[in-house]
Amino acid sequence: MRLKAVLALTLLAVTLAGCATDDIDPTKGWSAQRLYTEGKTALANKEYTEAVKYFEKLEARYPYGPYAEQAMLETAYAYYKSDEMVSAIAAANRFIRTHPTHPHVDYAFYLKGLASFDEERSSLEKVFGVGDVSKRDPRSLRDAYDAFKEVATRFPNSKYAEDSRKRLLSLVNSMAMSEIHAARHYYTRGAYVAVVNRTKLVIENYQRTPAVEEALGLQALSYRALGMDELLNDTRRVLEKNFPNSPYLAKLDKR
């Protein structure tokens, strides 16, 4: 019995010693500058998880001052580079809410746009960099558009403004085609009213995109299927005037 008691006490002592060792934080007592420097070093070495740990400790221990502000931005970037887009967006939003007038808030919006754009990337896109952007979640495309628009309009002289403007043009086309994908889906299922509603969105909101031709074509075909001849003829005239070589004109001639 005594031997068992001794062994039990020894085991308990070893366990407690191990726990005490585990509780020792090697960064205890570090300054904000050192935590920030270690975080930046981890970022440079592509050790993104470690970088986040350093930056989050910095914010927790030194919540005020330039290091904490910059650490918040670096956290968003580290999450973005580690392909954790939801966390990157959340971190960027937190910075924007906390420091709305910060000199680098333009970068926070830009980073939010990048993360929103990449949030719904398929596995094929991640590996090979190819894929149809318009087939992603429309919500993510809209969030990316809104973030880049914020940079382009509120911060026209920002170093991120020119790239944001280019991305806006591409996103407009992608969002228009996203509506077309939905319209095609409804058309193949005979949901012609839904097709008309989707194509109206494209015609009204994305007038200068290539998707307008298909929107008009699908809309005209749907009006024909619904027996709405007056609207069919009106839509066909617009299609013929703006896209005289559209293959949809030939489809409309077939009965």
**Cα-to-Cα separation, first versus last residue:** 97 Å
Beta strands, count: 0
Low-confidence regions: 4-8, 17-22
Strand percentage lies at under 5%
Rg calculated over all Cα atoms: 28 Å
Structural class: mainly alpha
Helicity range of the residues? over 70%
- Overall geometric form: elongated
- Residue-averaged pLDDT, rounded? 87
Largest sheet: none
Number of helices: 13
Helix/strand order, N-terminal first: HHHHHHHHHHHHH
Topology:
Layout: H1 2-22, H2 32-44, H3 48-61, H4 66-81, H5 85-98, H6 105-118, H7 123-128, H8 138-154, H9 161-188, H10 192-205, H11 211-226, H12 229-242, H13 247-253
Helix pairs in contact: 2-3, 2-4, 3-4, 4-5, 4-6, 5-6, 6-8, 8-9, 9-10, 9-11, 10-11, 11-12, 11-13
Annotation keywords:
255 residues; mainly alpha
Structure commentary:
The chain is mainly alpha-helical. Among the domains are: 30-82, no CATH class; 190-255, no CATH class. The protein is built from 13 helices and no strands. Helix 2 runs antiparallel to helix 3 (48-61), helix 3 runs antiparallel to helix 4 and helix 11 packs parallel to helix 13 (247-253). The protein is elongated and about 80 Å long.
Question: Summarize this, please?
Answer:
This protein has helices at residues 2-22, 32-44, 48-61, 66-81, 85-98, 105-118, 123-128, 138-154, 161-188, 192-205, 211-226, 229-242, 247-253.
